[in-house]
Amino acid sequence: MSILIRNAIVVDAAGAGAGASDVVVDGERIARIGPATSDDARDAAHAHVIDGRGRLLMPGFVDAHSHADGALFDPDVQLALLRQGVTTVIGGQDGVSYAPGDGAYATEYFAAINGGHPSYRGGGIAALLAAYDGTTAVNAGVLVPAGTVRFVVSGRSTDAASPDELDRMRVLVADGLADGALGLSTGLDYVPGIFADTAELAALAGPVADAGAVYVSHMRGGYEANSAAGIAEMAAIARETGARIHVSHFHAEPHLVRELLAELERDGVDATFDAYPYTRGCSILAMPILPASLTVRPGSEVVAELADPAARARLRREWFPTITRSAGLGPEWPSMLTLAHVAAPDYDWAHGLTIAQGAAEASGRSGTSIDAIDFALDVLVASRLEVNVVMAVQRERSDAGLAEILSHRAAIGGSDGIFIGRHPHPRARGSFSRYLAMLVREQAALGWADAAALVSSRAAARFGLGDRGAVREGFVADLVLVDPDAVRATASYVEPLGLAVGIDDVLVAGVPVLAGGALTGATPGRGIRRGGITTDVAAVDTAALEEA
Length: 548
Prior knowledge:
GO terms for molecular function: hydrolase activity, acting on carbon-nitrogen (but not peptide) bonds. InterPro entries: Amidohydro_3 (IPR013108), Metal-dep_hydrolase_composite (IPR011059), Metal_Hydrolase (IPR032466), Metallo-dep_Hydrolases_sf (IPR050378). This is N-acyl-D-amino-acid deacylase. Residues 49-254, 400-513 form the Amidohydrolase domain. The protein is an alpha/beta fold and 548 residues long. Among the domains are: 59-178 and 409-547, no CATH class; 283-391, no CATH class. Helix content is 37%, strand content 18%. The strands form four sheets. Strands 1, 2, 3, 4, 5, 6, 19, 20, 21 and 22 form a ten-stranded mixed beta sheet that branches. A six-stranded parallel beta sheet has the order 10-11-12-13-14-18. It is globular.
């Protein structure tokens, strides 16, 4: 199908056009870019005409850290992404996803983060990628999740991997990369990844380096003030293997982020990172408040343990006094964790409340005194662990502080978006529009070309997404029309389900998937397999990185 986009300002990492352009899309590729003209006869030659009305025409945005692994088939999720301009998501994050294996472990352990997958039951990365072909409006790339790899080979063992186990893990990683995975992810605060030592991680990063892919890590021991130790481990892995690294959701004080990235550069480590434009985090409730030695066990056993009064008393006595240190929380942790998703219908009323507020409400409802620890454990038992929370931090950062991090030349856009829950973190529905509104219009930290590098071209180059990330003749027509004066997020911590505004028209592979702000029903999305990137895009992206 031939499509004409009239009168749009072309913007990518190379810069912004001096004037309005007409862009012709033929099939899935951009066929021609030229000065805007008014020619009714020419318009009639195209099957479809989109009036750019002076809006910015940008390359489709790439969410480099997404948890839409199973949710991407939901039209509401597709709409939420496309209204932000996101045309590609990268899943398999934090070391936990469906492939390799049968998907059962990820479906149970990450039920409150990724949810289940509607069709994948095995077959590895190739089968998982195939599940996205022609079934969604948004593209999906995936990483090989190291925690899932460990689970497939070593089960729930907390011991160091044996040489034989390491060999089997390396084969699974290499096979996943050969099937098109974009890299390897680790989640070193989650189980079983938390039990992998540096030697194991380096062994798995070897095939990543060999394939020219990327080692992506949710670092060990949390973030913020603890970031230095995690960065040091990643640097050691990079030096040993030669792998390029990417730091997941790198949130810390701006000066610390920049200092640590400068150290990596001095060490010759090729590093990038993603960070969402919010301060608070989000994860499963079990991760910050329960010991990994417990949560590595089957869910039914964990639930039984939490329901046992003696075991609960032991946790209260021996474990809970330590979580302010182990999870980066303060003594006021019950007021720092807000319930975003609670699977138990009996606790439906608790969505949007902190653990402290929920305990007070539960006490009033029951007529008995219920403290924060008992309330949190009661919710986990009733929900069979399927609970996620928005997590406050000790020091909220200002927009200026976030802009200082996100304007770094190694920054790549990633929402860490979780679509499970009635009161989710707003980052899932707001991150990419907030990047544009906050960084360009409000903070003036980036120009539009720099913003295109942040939200599109750097990820396309870093992860090998092929001819994407630029508005150029011959490139895949993943395209977004942006109203520069109107684009903004409406989702907030109080009202997290609001859709972004200012992006109403989006194409994926040359097919309109969002028109007038609504889904068209087309599903041209596909599983994106890691492939070569053109020299032209790599050169342009490098220039943009140097200028940012």
